[in-house]
Amino acid sequence: MDETLVKAMVEDIKLREERSAMPVPVGISNRHVHLTKEDFKTLFGADCDDTQLKPVKQPGQYACNELFDLEGPKGSIKGVRMIGPYRKYSQVEVSAADARRLGVEPPIRDSGKLENTPGIKLVGPKGTVTLTRGLIMSKRHIHFQTREAEAFKVKDGQEVRVLCGRGTEREAIYERVLCRVLDSFSLELHLDVEEANAAGMKNGDPAFIV
Amino acid sequence: MDETLVKAMVEDIKLREERSAMPVPVGISNRHVHLTKEDFKTLFGADCDDTQLKPVKQPGQYACNELFDLEGPKGSIKGVRMIGPYRKYSQVEVSAADARRLGVEPPIRDSGKLENTPGIKLVGPKGTVTLTRGLIMSKRHIHFQTREAEAFKVKDGQEVRVLCGRGTEREAIYERVLCRVLDSFSLELHLDVEEANAAGMKNGDPAFIV
User: Fold this and answer.
1) pLDDT attached to residue A86
2) What digits encode the pLDDT tens for the residues B62-71?
3) Residue A98 burial (CB < 10 Å; 0-12/13-18/19+)?
4) What are phi and psi for residue A138, nearest 5 degrees?
5) What is residue B1's predicted lDDT score, i.e. its pLDDT?
């Protein structure tokens, strides 16, 4: 047999074994919105700033107290939250079920990749914002702090397959899960509610890169 | 090398190739209920029988016009349909999201396996039925007509892995999908709405046993 090939196969098996011992906790994302400061103030008033309801796992980010509505051509969804702090772009992340309810057809996109995405109307207590783009279904992804990515031997932008619900009735493998690496991130697999439910996952449950 | 092992491996590869050329169409199940004749008449009146809205793919089965509500400890779901005809047992099939909304914790079960399942209250225009058991989340399954099962070389009760959303952003492999074989069945992978959305599947899209 080809020695180089055998060596590569052994390395691959070793890598799989290493990763299978390193669970990635799941964080389940309900529909949410990121807003520019300007859009926030249009919805809640020029003298208003966002206030924190509770932190989320990604350092420095938090769910806000302020609620607003999404209005689509076929229906609306009330009581949607911003994940703060403000961003340089406004972005609305919904599930497939939400999209059907609103009557919109967002593409599946990595956060911030908003070229050729549809818009949506946001209705707050003090005003309305009609985004011309920014409506997406989030592509499944894992956040890695830089050192965590080194331990997993993954690079920013790489896609991996992830085993969810291991050993349960709803065990599933999600393909093409995007790896996102940044010093300010913390290890977490982000799934939307439907993806989590389909694999029988609750917040904090372990997933495995396979 | 061991000749028997090599032969088994070749057979396995051949079987996988055969199956990969035979797509299984997906049928997406929204929440629905099967009812005994007695329970139906309690909900809709003794002089009433079910009427067909539209047939579903499984021969002889149909969605009914008659609507009723599910009432759980935390919330209710309005406008639920029976899939007819009447059965020997009443069974309520909901998604994980539905279960949360109702405030109930049904297990994942094969249809008809109702031992130790919770009940739920059904409210119709003429009366109320409080089931003491029968509330489940349906285990993912494939219906095979007997000859279709022979072509796929699967047996009733066997579990298989199924590739969904092949080539899409939401490609996924669902493990432990139950094979159900009956002369009166027609080839169809049954997923609930969340499972279908998580894999980016629409009604009739192809899945593959892998």
Assistant:
1) 97
2) 999 999 999 9
3) buried
4) -70, 135
5) 66
Q: CA angle, corner B5, sides to B4 and B7, nearest 5?
A: 65
Residue B127 pLDDT > 70: yes
- Kindly report whether the peptide bond that precedes residue B118 is cis, defined as omega within 30 degrees of 0: no
The average confidence (pLDDT) of chain A is 96
Q: State how far Cα B16 lies from the chain centre.
A: 25
Asked if A200 reaches chain B (Cβ–Cβ under 8 Å), the answer is yes
* B197 and A194 Cβ atoms separated by less than 8 Å: yes
Q: How far is A45 from chain B (nearest CA, A)?
A: 33
Q: Say yes or no to pLDDT of B61 above 70.
A: yes
- Span B161-168, mean pLDDT? 96
Tell whether B197 is within 8 A of chain A (Cβ). yes
Query: What does the DSSP 8-state code read for residue B139?
Result: P
A interface mutation test: which of B197, B208, B210 has the most A CBs within 10 A? B197
pLDDT tens-digit map of B28-53: 999 999 999 999 999 999 999 999 99
Q: Do A97 and B193 touch (CB under 8 A)?
A: yes
SS3 content of chain A, % helix, strand, coil (to 5): 20, 35, 40
- Taking the CB of residue B165, how many other CB atoms lie within 10 A of it? 23
A101, A109, A175, A205: which to substitute to probe chain B, counting the most B Cβ within 10 Å?
Answer: A175
Structural domain boundaries in chain A: 21-28+140-209, 30-138
Which of B95, B170, B172 is facing A197, going by the closest CB pair?
B95
Is the domain spanning A21-28+140-209 CATH 2.40.40.20? The answer is yes
ipTM of the complex: 0.93
